[in-house]
Amino acid sequence: MALMIVDPCTACDACEPVCPNEAISEGDPFYVIDPMKCTECVGEEDEPQCKLVCPEACIVPNPDWEETQEELQAKYDALQ
């Protein structure tokens, strides 16, 4: 499942630099995650790095993008 950023994001910029797939970009009014690039860090890390650094805990699963671990790994492999 891809992740998404919701309110109360403060656009602090903590999440964008830690994303291994460059799936996070600046949006208006806060950052956004491209579900086509988000693998929840599968293939790189044990857990989503953006969620670890987010001071507001505003990164949540995107209910429109349910994916298995295998699908996330395949997406990661395709992005490399």
Defining traits:
80 residues, two-stranded antiparallel sheet
Care to give the gist of this entry?
This protein has 80 residues and is of the alpha+beta class. 20% of the residues lie in helices and 12% in strands.
Description:
With 80 residues, the chain is of the alpha+beta class. The chain has helices spanning 49-53, 69-79; strands at 3-5, 24-25, 32-33, 59-61. The strands form 2 sheets. The chain has a two-stranded antiparallel ribbon with strand order 1-4. Strands 2-3 form a two-stranded antiparallel ribbon. A hairpin with a 6-residue loop joins strand 2 and strand 3 (32-33). The longest helix is centred in the C-terminal third of the chain and has 11 residues, at 69-79. 24% of the residues are buried. The mean pLDDT is 96.
What's the helix and strand layout?
Blueprint: E1 3-5, E2 24-25, E3 32-33, H1 49-53, E4 59-61, H2 69-79
Overall mean pLDDT: 96
Radius of gyration: 12 Å
Q: Can you count the beta strands?
A: 4
Shape, principal axes of CA atoms: globular
Through-space gap between termini: 19 Å
What is the N-to-C order of secondary-structure elements (H for helix, E for strand)? EEEHEH
- Sheet-strand content, in percent, reads 5-15%
What's the quaternary structure here?
single chain
Q: Which consecutive residue ranges, at least 5 long each, have pLDDT under 50?
A: none
Strand sequence of the main sheet, in spatial order?
A: 1-4
